[in-house]
């Protein structure tokens, strides 16, 4: 039996405990499993990650203690009861202080995100699930360098916010259909080193 409780849209990660809790490829992957919005037990998390449940308990407890996972009820599994978990928010953000995130934490978190993207890319290519063109394209990669005016940069940010809005929509209330796709998008936008407009 699950417990319905509205979770916040965004949660800013405050303090070392929350930042350390999320600064792990395994825990980032674990949080990413909840894309459908359904509560999961440790056994279900372990099965989806292809790891033994004994290896997942530690990470679930750490995320719960840091306030990033919450209990969302229980379900029966044979003769015993399993606790169910949900993320504490739909989106987690590193809290910015004085206009910038902690450099070490930001670099580690982004590096982990790109390592996870590398794993997803290898799997998509090996399994033949990548589509390279058309309206249902789900595989693209690239790196672009350009010089943008203030107006062009503002336009780019409007597009990025629109993309973020699409990707952070709550799961549909309807049942999934065979045409649905699970996707991952990893982005990095930053100024180039040693480049200044004269």
Characterise this structure.
This protein has 198 residues and is an alpha+beta fold. It has a domain at 1-128: Arc Repressor Mutant, subunit A, CATH 1.10.10. It is built from six helices and five strands. The strands form two sheets. A three-stranded antiparallel beta sheet has the order 2-4-3. Helix 3 packs across helix 4 (53-65). The longest helix has 25 residues, at 103-127. It is globular and about 70 Å long. It starts with 9 loop residues before the first strand and ends in a 31-residue tail after the last helix.
Which strand order spans the largest sheet, edge to edge or round the barrel?
2-4-3
Cα(first) to Cα(last) distance is 64 Å
The CATH superfamily of the domain at 1-128 is identified as: Winged helix-like DNA-binding domain superfamily/Winged helix DNA-binding domain
User: Fraction of residues in helices?
Assistant: 40-55%
In the CATH hierarchy, the architecture of the domain at 1-128 is: Orthogonal Bundle
Biggest sheet overview: 3 strands, antiparallel
Order of helices and strands: EHHEHHEEEHH
How does the helix and strand content classify structurally? Answer: alpha+beta
Low-confidence stretches: none
Q: Say how many strands there are.
A: 5
Radius of gyration: 19 Å
The percent range for strand residues is: 5-15%
Apparent shape: globular
- What is the CATH class of the domain at 1-128? Mainly Alpha
What is the residue-mean pLDDT, rounded to a whole number? 82
Q: Helix segment count?
A: 6
Under CATH, the topology of the domain at 1-128 can be stated as Arc Repressor Mutant, subunit A
